Amino acid sequence: MPLTDKLGRRITDLRVSITDRCNYRCVYCRSGEEDVPFSELPIADYVRLVRVFVSLGIEKVRITGGEPLLRRELLPMIEQLSSMTTAGSGKPLDVAITTNGHLLAKLAQPLRDAGLSRVTVSMDAVDPAKFARITRVANGYEAVVAGIRAAKRVGLEPVKINAVIMRGFNEDQIADFARFSRDEGVIVRFIEFMPLEEGRVWAPDVVLGYNEMLDILNSYRSLVPLPPTTIGETAMRYTFDDGVGEVGIIAPVSRAFCGACSRVRLTSDGKIRTCLFSQSDHDLYGVLQRGGTDADLAAFIEATIQKKEARHHIGEPGFLKPSRSMVHIGG
């Protein structure tokens, strides 16, 4: 039987954070403190936990962080994951990664050789000065662009760029990102700012919503809608009137897509989160540490999936920000 929650949503996508360390200090994510404790499990333990998820019907695994390229054992992990097949269909597991791209230029070919399917790069400005202000890292822009081009060159496609947009901060980058999509042959997805930051600076008036982003893009060049590629796709996709380039808008605040959610997350310390905005974790790694068998792990996963929330409550009276920030949950 497929892994299905109490609302009948089939869970096919797993996001696995393998570290909450990061070499960037993005203003919408980190507080800016230099010495922050981090948590990581042995790579072999992540692989075992993923294998159990895959035995229950997970079809796609995305490796996240923090910054996953900081883990030295990443390549052997990808080799092991890419050799797995999805229960029932026997299809190869789809393995992707989300990275800030800073180390990608040197690792693109080894990642591809290890079996990685695709890469998504988190990048919030195409202006080098603004990029440095957002990331708090000097001279990072050139490294990230080199990484994007290397990923394309070795076939880690489609290369996607995720840009978190904040009002009064980087909305002036939207048209420039559209141009970047067309010039570089990558997909750019604009993401509404969510209340997941360490510094707790989120407020409704900082969110640049779907309609405003759409207006800016249309003022650059007329958009043409594209059909969704999967049932649970989070981005509303567009090309331009000449068919060159692709952009998308992910609008979890103004246009929630919870009804078709197919995701579950595993944090870097081995806890299941059934929603980004959960107020609690479910300690899967604790089962492993207590000597649990794969059957015990599978039973825990199946029971936890039945606790998956129907939706988030951003913007509603009484909404509480999640118990952990994004860097500790995993992107």
TrEMBL record:
Amino-acid positions noted as binding [4Fe-4S] cluster 2 in the UniProt annotation, renumbered to this chain: C258, C261, C275
**One annotated GO biological process:** Mo-molybdopterin cofactor biosynthetic process
**Entry keyword set:** 4Fe-4S, GTP-binding, Iron, Iron-sulfur, Lyase, Metal-binding, Molybdenum cofactor biosynthesis, Nucleotide-binding, S-adenosyl-L-methionine
Q: Which reaction does it catalyse?
A: GTP + AH2 + S-adenosyl-L-methionine = (8S)-3',8-cyclo-7,8-dihydroguanosine 5'-triphosphate + 5'-deoxyadenosine + L-methionine + A + H(+)
Cofactor(s) this protein requires: [4Fe-4S] cluster
Known pathway: Cofactor biosynthesis; molybdopterin biosynthesis
Gene3D superfamilies hit by this protein = Aldolase class I
Q: Which residues bind S-adenosyl-L-methionine?
A: Y28, G66, S122, M194
EC top class, as a word: lyase
Q: Which InterPro entries match?
A: Aldolase_TIM, Elp3/MiaA/NifB-like_rSAM, MoaA, MoaA-like, MoaA_twitch, MoCo_biosynth_MoaA/MoaC, rSAM, rSAM_sf
Positions that bind GTP: R15, R62, T98, K160, R263, V264, R265
Transmembrane stretches in the record are none
Keyword Iron-sulfur in the entry? The reply is: yes
Question: Known EC number(s)?
Answer: 4.1.99.22
Q: Which residues bind [4Fe-4S] cluster 1?
A: C22, C26, C29
Q: How is the cofactor bound?
A: Binds 2 [4Fe-4S] clusters. Binds 1 [4Fe-4S] cluster coordinated with 3 cysteines and an exchangeable S-adenosyl-L-methionine and 1 [4Fe-4S] cluster coordinated with 3 cysteines and the GTP-derived substrate.
What are the protein's GO molecular function terms? 4 iron, 4 sulfur cluster binding; cyclic pyranopterin monophosphate synthase activity; GTP 3',8'-cyclase activity; GTP binding; metal ion binding; S-adenosyl-L-methionine binding
Q: Where is the Radical SAM core domain?
A: 6-223
Q: What does this protein do?
A: Catalyzes the cyclization of GTP to (8S)-3',8-cyclo-7,8-dihydroguanosine 5'-triphosphate.
Q: How does it assemble?
A: Monomer and homodimer.
The family this protein is said to belong to: Belongs to the radical SAM superfamily. MoaA family.
By what name is this protein known?
Answer: GTP 3',8-cyclase
